[in-house]
């Protein structure tokens, strides 16, 4: 008579055999990832997790793949499961932080990174990641401290130094930013993006000659990069070389005619020097190529149409965009509502207030410029100039409105 295993024991044996197969699926997923087949890797990891839900490596690997596939919610679920399996797994908390950052949950991301640091402060450049999360929440002092710690743990890496330099720019420590960029170039003399960044900062400090020299270095290292020539165009305009600026912007568009950013850069320059029909064509082209990324071009289109005597057409167009827009009550909507005439200047400036001081400065940078543009259209040149000066006082140098206010204030002086 044949001996039969009890049903419960048989189920346990089969489960154990299935769990034993799970690592093979993880290994197969790694090979597929090396071959850039993320979907195939995902299928293998799904099998691994199904067979062994508590296999830490499977959860961590699937979380990484889900993040790569822009499934931040799914990734977060995997990393939370991994943290429950092994609360001392620093990688689980780093992954949780990455997923929460992708979901826009900055405070939760910082908490997750801090949990990882408490376990292993050198895992996956976690100080660098926490610095990015802190900077996104405008905790600039905390961000600089984290970038400094990250560089101390990985002195051969440049990411933390570059991020620290960018952060110094954000707090208007321009001399400190140049010192940071100098230090990077001592380590990596062929870092074209660093020459470009340092050139922009030098231009902000009025050193246009030094800025152009830096951007020439960037152009030598990256002769096919349209961003380099767009930046050089802006620097040339600031130095009073409008013709050279247009040549550079034309080259930027020529290098990548499908770049909405290149068309937007040229549109802004054409607007700032008063060539409105050409500017309008480039603003529209930037929207045609990437409407989501360049939504602010719609605001400039209304201004340009107004300058060309077609203000009503511009207002109708912007109102139609607002009506079809999913989000109805964000800062962009408030600015657009002001431009179409349904919100007055005082209400716009009041709406710029925010509990976060840096966000308020960003809002005011934009509000002052668009209010200035409307004042200028109404013939109040002095009022427009004063509002542009207030825009410049916000020191939000990376905004397109800051560049336009700079050009207007320069012409008005």
Describe this structure in words.
The protein is an all-alpha fold. Among the domains are: 11-156, Serine Threonine Protein Phosphatase 5, Tetratricopeptide repeat (Alpha Horseshoe), CATH 1.25.40.10; 321-413. It is 77% helix and 0% strand. The chain contains 23 helices and no strands. The protein has helices spanning 7-34, 38-51, 56-68, 72-85, 90-102, 106-119, 126-136, 140-153, 159-170, 174-187, 192-204, 208-221, 226-238, 242-255, 260-272, 276-289, 297-307, 311-324, 331-339, 345-351, 357-377, 381-393, 400-412. The longest helix has 28 residues, at 7-34. Residues 1-5 and 7-17 have low confidence and may be disordered.
Q: Rg to the nearest angstrom?
A: 26 Å
Task: Indicate the percent of residues in helices.
Answer: over 70%
Please report which band the strand proportion falls in: under 5%, 5-15%, 15-25%, 25-35%, 35-45% or over 45%: under 5%
Mean pLDDT: 92
- Rough outline: globular
Largest sheet: none
Please name the fourth-level CATH homologous superfamily of the domain at 11-156. Answer: Tetratricopeptide repeat domain
Seen as an oligomer or otherwise, the chain set is: single chain
SSE order in H/E notation?
Answer: HHHHHHHHHHHHHHHHHHHHHHH
Cα distance spanning the termini: 106 Å
- By CATH, the architecture of the domain at 11-156 is named Alpha Horseshoe
Question: How many extended strands?
Answer: 0
Question: Do you know the CATH topology of the domain at 11-156?
Answer: Serine Threonine Protein Phosphatase 5, Tetratricopeptide repeat
**For the record, what CATH class of the domain at 11-156 applies?**
Mainly Alpha
Show unreliable segments: 1-5, 7-17
In DSSP terms (H or I, runs of 4 or more residues), the helix count works out at 23
């Amino acid at each position: 008579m044949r001996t039969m295993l009890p049903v419960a024991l048989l189920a346990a044996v089969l489960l154990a055999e299935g769990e034993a197969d799970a690592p093979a699926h993880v290994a197969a997923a790694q090979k597929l990832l090396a071959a850039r087949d993320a979907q195939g890797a995902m299928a293998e990891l799904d099998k691994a997790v199904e067979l062994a839900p508590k296999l830490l490596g499977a959860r961590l690997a699937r979380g990484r793949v889900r993040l790569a596939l822009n499934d931040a919610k799914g990734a977060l679920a995997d990393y939370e499961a991994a943290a429950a399996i092994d609360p001392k797994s620093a990688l689980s908390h780093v992954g949780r932080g990455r997923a929460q950052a992708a979901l826009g949950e900055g405070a939760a991301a910082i908490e997750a990174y801090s949990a990882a640091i408490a376990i292993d402060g050198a895992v996956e450049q976690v100080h660098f990641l926490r610095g990015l999360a802190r900077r996104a929440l405008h905790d600039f002092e905390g961000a600089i401290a984290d970038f400094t710690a990250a560089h101390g743990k990985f002195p051969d890496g440049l990411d933390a130094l570059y991020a620290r330099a960018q952060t110094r720019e954000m707090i208007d420590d321009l001399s400190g930013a140049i010192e940071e960029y100098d230090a990077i170039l001592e380590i990596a003399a062929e870092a074209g993006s660093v020459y470009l960044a340092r050139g922009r900062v030098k231009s902000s400090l009025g050193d246009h000659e030094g800025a152009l020299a830096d951007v020439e270095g960037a152009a030598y290292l990256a002769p096919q990069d349209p961003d380099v020539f767009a930046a050089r165009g802006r620097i040339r305009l600031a130095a009073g070389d409008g013709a050279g600026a247009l040549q550079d912007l034309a080259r930027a568009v020529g290098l990548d005619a499908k770049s909405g950013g290149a068309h937007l850069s040229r549109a802004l320059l054409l607007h700032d020097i008063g060539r409105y029909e050409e500017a309008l064509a480039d603003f529209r082209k930037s929207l045609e190529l990437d409407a989501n990324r360049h939504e602010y071009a719609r605001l400039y289109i209304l201004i340009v149409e107004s300058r060309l005597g077609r203000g009503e057409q511009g207002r109708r167009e912007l109102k139609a965009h607002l009506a079809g827009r999913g989000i109805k009550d964000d800062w962009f909507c408030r600015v657009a509502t002001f431009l179409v005439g349904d919100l007055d200047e005082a209400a716009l400036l009041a709406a710029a207030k925010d509990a976060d001081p840096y966000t308020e400065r960003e809002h005011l940078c934009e509000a002052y410029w668009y209010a200035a543009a409307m004042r200028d259209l109404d013939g109040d040149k002095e009022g427009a100039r004063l509002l542009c000066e207030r825009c410049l006082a916000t020191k939000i140098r990376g905004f397109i409105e800051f560049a336009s206010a700079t050009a207007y204030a320069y012409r008005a002086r």
